[in-house]
Amino acid sequence: MSQPTLSRTTDDRVLAGVVGGIARRFGWNSTMLRVVYVVASVVSAGFPGILVYLILWLLMPEGD
Q1: Of 20, 23, 24, 45, which sits 20 to 30 A from 31 (CA to CA)?
Q2: In the prediction, which pLDDT does 48 show?
Q3: pTM for this one?
């Protein structure tokens, strides 16, 4: 049984499916990962969350 590849989701997306794709790849809950990502982006000035999200949007292929 192979793991899913790292790709953006088409069925579990809020904006572009980046966080949903990461959650699917590692078997995590996508809602909790979204909450952690937003909190980390807001709380930490050293974590440019929007820039990282945009880069991943461009680099990650769209999945099935």
Answers
A1: 45
A2: 86
A3: 0.84
